[in-house]
Amino acid sequence: MFLSEALAQRILQEVRKLMDEDFIIVNTEGNIIASTARDRIGSFHEGAMIAAHEKRNVLLTEQDESQLQGVKAGINLPIMFQHHVVGVIGITGNPEKVTPFGSLLKKMTELLIHENYYKEQVEWKTRAVEGLVFDWIHQHTDSENFQERADMLGIDLSLPRRSTIIHLRNMNADKEPVVLDFLKSRLLPTKNDIFARLGSDRYVLLEVAMSSDEANRITHRKTSFLKWKQELEKRYGITMTAGIGQPVSREEVNISYEQAERALLVADKNDGIFFDEELGLEMCIQEISHATRSDFITRTIERIKGEKDLIDTLIIYFKNDLKIKAAAEDMHVHINTIHYRFKRIEALTSLDPKVFRDLMTLYMGLYFLEEQTKEKHVRA
């Protein structure tokens, strides 16, 4: 463990909140790296070097000030970490008066160093897991080093996995720790599940895939995700969407990840949670370019885009599973009104809503128009 100037300064600031005495923090070479008296920073302290090398407390009197380099009356105490001296803390003043503070200050300092060490360890492991997951989902797994890294992190590469990509909107630095704790406590039921950051607002979960009754598991998992989604919105104002891939072997984790990406595209557009297994038409539509979609709208429903009653009629007709009577009741109009509007649609688009092929073309045009409108709204 290396006692850096930054950590020493942080310790000084924390301790300063609890005591008014002047004190210094010194490295094992005897150089002062933090001090309540800033003009002492960088100077050599012979008494602290003795305390560090001999691993003992050193009392300093006014007489010592003229005999030892850079010292003032007080007490110097070695700072221990894992049975090693990592620095020295010194309190300035009458040794008899400041000595009672020494043990307390030493213990506080050592606790802060332990806290910082474990925080660094957690951060290191988090970064290491993120690096391993990145390589895994992008198929950079051929080297022996990949297996060694996994072993060091305690990650079992042999288990089947299912990829989930979680997108969190309205996140900020203050909310992040509590929101991630919330998610991890629910998403990581076993030690073999892996959670890692993908970017500023995206996270990936590589959970162990269960082989039993997969259909029921999907239903249960989706119910759980929707519940967590509601809790996040209610508690923290966070909007969560998620795309979930299919269970695969270790060698195919990248495929499950690509499926999760595809499902997330649909989830983001519908503010929901989607499994890849649920995707039907959406799976094909995601492969169609924006330019082709725009061109399709132009060729099909461009002339009725501004006719709200016609667009609404089609939307509600589809919503009611092509039942004209139900659509009329839903719109509070007479059935004949629906028939009239269908004729109007055919006149403007050359597509007859009563002909299946034309009806499918109208549906696709409406679908692309809705997606286009959503994207414009998001950009705005």
Automatic annotation (TrEMBL):
InterPro entries: CdaR-like_regulators, CdaR_GGDEF, Diacid_rec, PucR_C-HTH_dom, PucR_C-HTH_sf. Residues 142-264 form the CdaR GGDEF-like domain. Residues 310-366 form the PucR C-terminal helix-turn-helix domain. Residues 3-136 form the Putative sugar diacid recognition domain. Belongs to the CdaR family. This is Carbohydrate diacid regulator. It comes from Thalassobacillus cyri. The lineage of its organism: Bacteria, Bacillati, Bacillota, Bacilli, Bacillales.
